Amino acid sequence: MAPRPRELKPDRSARDLFGSEMRRYREEAGMSLESLAGVLRYAKSSLARYETAEAMVPPDLPERLDAAFGAGGLFGKLYGLARKETHPDQYRRRMELETRAHLIQEFAGHFVPGLVQTEAYARALFEIHNPKATPDEIQELLMARMGRQALLSADPAPDFSVILDEAVLRRTYGGPAVMRPQLERLINLTLTPTSVVQVLPFEHGGHALAGGTLTLMTLDNGSQVAYEESISTGTLLEEKSVVTTRQRAYDLLRACALSPRKTAAFIRAAMEALPS
Questions:
Q1: pLDDT tens digits along 106-152
Q2: The organism sits in which domain of life (predicted)?
Q3: Using CA atoms, how far apart are residues 197 and 163, in angstroms rounded to an integer?
Q4: 205 and 257 both lie in a single domain
Q5: 167 and 39, same structural domain?
Q6: CATH number, domain at 31?
Q7: Distance of CA 28 to CAs 5, 24, 65, Å?
Q8: Which of 17, 42, 47, 136 has an alpha carbon within 20 to 30 A of 34's alpha carbon?
Q9: 76 within 8 A of 66, measured Cβ to Cβ
Q10: Comparing C-alpha atoms, which of 67, 66, 84 is closest to residue 75?
């Protein structure tokens, strides 16, 4: 017995509406996903993800769908809306994509990225972010944060690359007793078979990624997504041209950052400068 198709929610977003219309036209034409894949010369698995709004539609697909179904440009118009909107449930989506990534590249401008935070450092961040949170709420956040870190010790583990602005090392959370183990952990990750840590010193000056954090993920199917984060919000970016622009900005920073060996020495000096 064939599994029931996943229920669609066309009123949730333009991307969901695109997928819903794609399924409606396909079913009215009496076509299976497999037969549509043959007509469009697309992988069946990819079409299934577009239909259920699990992945951003690639720019060439709307024109192919309009031609295949004689839809009069409907899919092109829906794509124009979908590519400009913020993905609903984007943080949850980001977490799902993270588990599929074989390469994770991050720029951190203000604090240590969650994947390599110590528990004490993460606790200090959560307590500062929401001073009214109860101990149970903080503990729940900590468990989720520490659980994510299992990703880096998986078999196989993704390759992990992070560029830290010098501000990450200079601004303390939780005091010296918390910062020392956190900085020590970063030193241990500067150059391993699966991790690279680099510091971008203040002397570099301004750059395109100042003001936030960026995560670039290369997924198991070869596609790339980006996630930008500010004080309390994040934006998932899946449009290829936008992700390419962010990747270029990241690559330029990586070229200007300290080498892993110099980074380790730089972090060590920052640790030694902490008050006793």
A1: 999 999 999 999 999 999 999 999 999 998 899 988 888 888 898 99
A2: Bacteria
A3: 6
A4: yes
A5: no
A6: 1.10.260.40
A7: 15, 6, 14
A8: 17
A9: yes
A10: 66
- Print burial letters for 202-235: b (CB count within 10 Å at least 16), e (below 16): eeeeebebeeebbbbbbbeeebbbbbbbeeeeeb
Are both 267 and 211 inside the same structural domain?
A: yes
**Are 103 and 56 contained in the same domain?**
no
Q: Are residues 102 and 231 in the same domain?
A: yes
Q: Contact at 8 Å (CB) between 101 and 158?
A: yes
Q: Which of 230, 234, 223 is nearest to 56 (CA)?
A: 223
Among 209, 211, 210, smallest CA distance to 226 is for 209
3 preceded by cis ω (within 30°)?
no
20 and 54: one domain?
yes
Contact (CB, 8 A) for 213 and 196: no
Look-up of token digits 């993270």: 98
The reply to whether 166 falls in a domain is yes
Residues 34 and 71 in one domain: yes
Cα–Cα nearest to 158, from 199, 101, 110, 202:
101
Mean of all residue pLDDT scores within the chain:
91
What CATH number did the domain enclosing 105 receive? 3.30.870.10
| Each residue's pLDDT tens digit, 20-56 | 999 999 999 999 999 999 999 998 988 998 998 877 7
Q: Is residue 209 part of a domain?
A: yes
Q: Report d(CA 17, CA 11) in Å as an integer.
A: 7
Specify the DSSP element, H or E, that contains 273: none
- Count other Cβ atoms within 10 Å, centred on residue 146: 14
Helix (H, G, I), strand (E, B) or coil at 113: coil
pTM of the model: 0.73
Q: Which two tokens stand for residue 261?
A: 């060996």
Q: Domain range spanning residue 71? A: 14-80
134 in helix, strand or coil? coil
